[in-house]
Design goal:
Layout lengths: L10 E6 L3 H15 L3 E6 L2 H10 L4 E5 L10 H11 L4 E6 L4 H9 L4 E4 L4 H14 L17 E2 L2 E2 L3 H13 L6 E4 L6 H11 L7 E5 L5 H9 L16 H4 L4 E5 L6 H13 L1 E2 L8 E2 L3 E6 L3 H6 L5 H7 L2 E4 L10 H16 L5 E2 L1 H9 L5 H15 L4 E2 L1 H7 L15 H4 L6 H15 L4 H8 L3 H17 L1
Parallel strand pairs: 1-2, 1-3, 3-4, 4-5, 8-13, 8-14, 9-10, 10-13, 15-16
Antiparallel strand pairs: 6-7, 11-12
Helix pairs in contact: 1-5, 2-3, 3-4, 5-6, 13-15, 15-16, 18-19, 18-20
InterPro entries: AAA+_ATPase, AAA_lid_NorR, CheY-like_superfamily, Homeodomain-like_sf, HTH_Fis, P-loop_NTPase, Sig_transdc_resp-reg_receiver, Sigma_54_int
Keywords: Activator, ATP-binding, DNA-binding, Nucleotide-binding, Phosphoprotein, Transcription, Transcription regulation, Two-component regulatory system
Organism: Devosia psychrophila
Length: 473
């Protein structure tokens, strides 16, 4: 197995593109942004790429879908063949147009992402880094764009590579009217993302209407979403528009979409398919033009497997996905955010705080932040309200951190004799995790792979390897 020396690139990237001019442009763009961290090899089509994959290992594959036709006329079949040969590499499908069918097909075939041309070098470098971390690749890919980029964008604060990619995604897809599916943990800013998409798009002059599917009782949700006709039920004295009608011409934001009742999901699907709705108690239909943005902090594939979310609705909504990274995955943004909140709340409360002590900054940066940006924001605001001074000190932080969520001192390690446990080999621990996931989805490998954020082909390959190890032992 080849071992890289310190002077070598961190990994190998295979670019599959039949257009020589396009391949040169992509290579130049990525080369400038990656700063030599990846060695780039090009292939003019699917078959030459397959030969290269059989002969050597690659960490990342960028494959233009139109260039894979020599492998198969169906792009999803061609992607599936590349994924099987990729041996666990990150596979990103490229296309000149934002085709929903092509995107869904490529992802179902095992691609880790789908990106439209032309590529932005810094954004693509950030995306590769985020994918490598998110999918737990064993090959080390330490990739950062040369330029850190902007530190604020449409309500977001952060200059990390992960946030640069989010900004680039918002800029690309804001002009479209296609549905957007935002995922991310609580507190990562999914509502800010929806507002940014609306503000940057052509519907900015119209309304953005948000409705929280988890905060409204199920028996009231339909009337809140689609409206009520007069006399529909006791107390309905007047016609009332729902959120969808109020957003006509603008944007409808469905937050916590995973909490919507199944019976209402079918009506939402029909609304998305036809662009028409009927108020509760009304026989006729009304034409409405809205862009739908939805968000969830839950795993949609798990909801589908549990029969809590319709699969056809998911694929109707999951056209343009955006994933917001948790704060712990972008530690360089923590102090940028903390200083921003400190300046904001100091001005509001008429305090004189101007910064953080060094030990405080170190502790904030190393904290886990289970509540993400919202937790950090609340802590800084509490500090400003409760304390006085020019600098946030450690005693102030200890006093204000009343929940001790992620900021409590690290406990002293237990004696070695108490900590010693039987350690299983890595492949056995990995096998246990994957097999448990498959069992939880009743043997469905595709759903288990989606929950683990790996491709199904990776599971099949690893199972074959485990079988060989068992035979050998």
């Amino acid at each position: 197995m080849h071992t890289r020396s310190d002077g070598e690139p961190h990994g190998r990237l295979l670019l599959v593109d039949a257009d020589d001019a396009s391949a040169r442009l992509v290579t130049e763009t990525l080369g400038q942004s990656l700063g030599g961290s990846l060695r780039i090899t090009t292939a003019s089509g699917g078959r030459p790429a397959a030969e290269l994959l059989r002969d050597g290992d690659f960490d990342i594959i960028l494959a233009d879908l139109s260039s894979l036709r020599d492998l198969s006329e169906r792009s999803d079949d061609a992607v599936a063949r590349l994924v099987r040969l990729a041996d666990g590499a990150l596979v990103v499908a490229l296309s000149d147009g934002a085709s929903v069918t092509a995107a869904v097909g490529a992802m179902r075939a095992g691609a880790h992402d789908y990106v439209t041309k032309p590529l932005s070098g810094p954004a693509m470098a950030a995306r590769i880094s985020e994918l490598a971390q998110r999918h737990g690749k064993t090959r080390a890919l330490s990739i950062e764009p040369r330029n850190s980029g902007r530190a604020d964008f449409a309500g977001f604060i952060g200059s990390s590579s992960a946030m640069q990619f989010v900004y680039e995604q918002i800029g690309r897809i804001s002009a479209s009217s296609a549905p957007v599916f935002i995922t991310g943990e609580s507190g990562t800013g999914k509502d800010v993302c929806a507002e940014a998409l609306h503000a940057k798009g052509p519907r900015f002059g119209k309304r953005l209407v948000a409705i929280n599917c988890a905060a409204i009782p199920r028996d009231l949700m339909e009337s809140e979403l689609f409206g009520v006709a007069r006399g529909a039920f006791t107390g309905a004295h007047d016609d009332r528009k729902g959120a969808a009608e109020l957003a006509d011409g603008g944007t409808l934001f469905l937050d916590e979409i995973g909490e919507m009742d199944l019976s209402l999901q079918s009506k939402l699907l029909r609304f998305l398919q036809t662009g028409t709705l009927s108020r509760v108690g009304e026989a006729g239909v009304r034409q409405v033009d809205v862009r739908v943005i939805c968000a969830t902090n839950r795993n949609p594939m798990q909801l589908i497997s549990e029969k809590k979310f319709r699969e056809d609705l998911f694929y109707r909504l999951h056209v343009l996905p955006i994933h917001l990274p948790p704060l712990r995955q972008r530690p360089t943004d923590i102090m940028v955010l903390a200083r921003h909140f400190l300046a904001r709340y100091s001005a509001e409360e008429r305090k004189n705080f101007s910064g953080f002590a060094g030990d405080v900054a170190s502790l904030l940066t190393s904290a886990e932040w289970k509540g993400n940006v919202r937790q950090l924001q609340n802590l800084v605001r509490r500090l400003v309200v409760m304390c006085d001074g020019e600098e946030i000190t450690m005693p102030m932080l200890r006093a204000a951190d009343i929940e001790s969520q992620g900021l409590a001192p690290v406990a002293e390690p237990a004696p070695r004799s108490e900590r010693r446990q039987a350690i299983l080999p890595m492949w056995q621990q990995e096998q246990r995790i994957i097999e448990d996931a498959i069992a939880s989805f009743s043997g469905n490998v595709s759903l288990a792979a989606a929950a683990l954020e790996i491709s199904p082909s990776t599971i099949y390959r690893k199972r074959q390897g485990w079988a060989e190890l068992s035979v050998a032992s």
